[in-house]
Amino acid sequence: MNKLSHLDEHGAARMVDVSAKETTDREAVAEAFIVLSQEAFEAALSADAPKGDVLAAARLAGIMAAKKTPDLIPLCHQIALTKVGVDFEPDAERNALRIVATAKTSAQTGVEMEALVAASVAALTVYDMVKAIDHGATIENVRLVTKTGGKSGTYIATKRAVGAQRPRPTTPRGRAAPATLMGEVAGPRQTDGAKEREAFRAFMTNHRLRATDWAKQAGIPAALIYAFLTGRARSLPADAAEKLARAARVRIEDLFGKGRR
Is 128 tagged catalytic? Predict the structure, then answer.
């Protein structure tokens, strides 16, 4: 068993001396899940929550929290972060969001805690943003997914089974009961088309459109809207965009602001 580095020979807590360690490029990816009611899930993705844009607020909160990690975790070192990113992946089947936080630095110690704090605070912010709709939202499975750099080298988490030990009933409000979710070992996806995506989200907010209802009216899978809103898809398929515009009685250009003309 490895000795706990944060304890001295007398068992007292201490900050580890890293002055002799080599400065290397380090990266960590952490994840957290939040399971919501259907109403809260749709509000989070469509920016139709009582407090406004849920994902934008949660992303900023996660980034800010990563920079405050030494103030929150007493034995963490103050390090210069070169990157912090927070991304969201929806699971429409379970009304859940997977939150993926990435932290990078070039330092003498790692950024695992910064990534974990970012994912945790982003999840807490999602809860705060939707609690007026759903006080029963559940945060699950905060963990380190990958880390690179440093003496210990690369770490990659193993995949977890999806609730194999118990059934997953639904609650009267349409939220799946808390269970372990599958977390793929992967970093956040690229977010091309950000301007079109933000314009599309603003269009939904201004017209009070909910993804599930709008998709049903247009005759397309709601997953297409969710994938675009969260950056998992770079754009909406042309036929889907045409059907959505027709259902909303607007031009396709109106859905994307200046993104498509």
Answer: yes
